[in-house]
Amino acid sequence: MCPDCEDFGRTVLLLGQLALYADMAGADLDFVDVVSPSLAVSLPEPPPGPFPDDSDPAEDS
């Protein structure tokens, strides 16, 4: 697996785990509020393949 693919997958996994944690009773939502934007910003460009070539998330559908 390419290094960017591994980083992308790991970061997406962490964001998913953080979302699950945020839904738990007693979760520290201040922690979630601080960590989630940092993880999202650290996402590298998605590796080739997960999205169609003509897709542009910045465009309105």
Biggest sheet overview: none
Based on secondary structure, the structural category is: mainly alpha
Helices, by number, come to 2
**Uncertain residue segments:** none
- Global Rg: 14 Å
Order of helices and strands: HH
- According to DSSP, the number of beta strands is 0
Considering DSSP H and I runs of 4 or more, what fraction of the residues is helical?
Answer: 40-55%
Distance between the ends: 32 Å
Mean pLDDT: 81
Q: What overall form do the CA principal axes indicate?
A: elongated
Give the amount of beta strand, in percent.
Answer: under 5%
Descriptive account of the structure:
This protein is mainly alpha-helical and 61 residues long. The protein contains two helices and no strands. α1 packs antiparallel against α2. The longest helix has 20 residues. The radius of gyration is 14 Å and the shape is elongated. The N and C termini lie far apart (32 Å). The mean pLDDT is 81.
Defining key terms:
about 60 residues, about 0% strand, elongated
Briefly, what is this?
The chain is mostly helical and 61 residues long. Helices cover 54% and strands 0% of the residues. It contains two helices and no strands.
Give the secondary structure arrangement, pairings included:
Blueprint: H1 3-22, H2 29-41
